[in-house]
Amino acid sequence: MTAHILFDVHHLYYLPQFLPVYRVLQAHGVACEFVIYRNAKLQAVLDKIVADENLPVHWVNSVENARDYYQAQTAEWLILGNSFKYLDDLPAVTRTALINHGAGIKGAGHDASMCRVSVRFAEGPYQFRQLQKHYPQGTYVDVGFSKLDPMFNSGIKKPELDLAACGLDPAKPTLLYAPTFYPSSIECMSDDWPAEFADYNLLVKPHFFTYTKSRYKAQRHKLETWRNTHNMFIADVSDYNLLPFMASADLLISDASTALFEFAALNKPVVWCEFLKLRWSYRGPFRYRYTRRMDQDILRYADIAVHAQRYRDLLSHVQSELADPSRHQRQRQSYTRELMGVTDGRVSERIVDYLLADSSKK
Description:
The structure is a single chain. The chain is of the alpha/beta class. The protein has 2 domains: about 170 residues, Rossmann fold (3-Layer(aba) Sandwich); about 170 residues, 3-Layer(aba) Sandwich (Rossmann fold). It is built from 15 helices and 13 strands. The strands form 2 sheets. Strands 3-2-1-4-5-6-7 form a 7-stranded parallel beta sheet. Helix 1 crosses helix 15. The longest helix is centred in the last third of the chain and has 14 residues. The radius of gyration is 21 Å and the shape is globular. The chain starts with a strand and ends with a helix.
């Protein structure tokens, strides 16, 4: 049995992938520790989440601090959510596993630096094939998307919001707006969006970087224009987990984000926003730069949702999708199998089985 497993939590949004795995390891009696990076602006938030989740934690101030700690600990496994530049400095007894912090549709998830680990857990057949094709020297195991386990495993309490406690009307249909940070549709949404969608509850779950990166202050300003409206609840930066919002919503509105595919895995309708705020260097004659930046992998699965080309088209698309939520069901189910793998709520168990079985071979 593995004596000690470490989780490298470089960013808060890694936790939804890690926590289901940690809970299974707990059930096996495996000693675990979360190595979390201090953040002066977010420390109170981090402290609260650690307390709420009752996590065993070691705090570090930098990647170099984390490296030094890993050298001293000589754990049997280090679980990562992204690349780690000091892999070559880790003790020989410490093996590394990567559980990607997002769904593996984007090409960035296939970067060479993310394939140098001892084992990489793939979210589905598509990513598994891509990894084998581009980096055949690596070790990959197709397990599924651990973040979604609480949504499919009846033995795990499903995380849901209390809509009434959020100031919303539980009798109304609930829409979740979860845009990415760039390029984003936030700035293109109407200031009067809550009033124009008065028949719906509106849950707004901004990207983590919308709150934490200074360059996205216009997005934060837009959130402030919507605040204190009767039919909207805006997630705070401390609401790091998208799952409670997904579980409570009837429909998702988003951009070209992996949230589209996570929500579609629940077999609920999605509206994909094509109206985006682009920097001047991506507009007009420079539009080709945006096209080049846009991940072609995502576009391959564009028919998973109805597309809103303009904000003024959004309401009619929401109405039509809710009137016939099975319209894109075939695509949702097909692409979920391809991109998310098996959604049986037991992804974390498969990951833990691999970690413990491989440890016993030492």
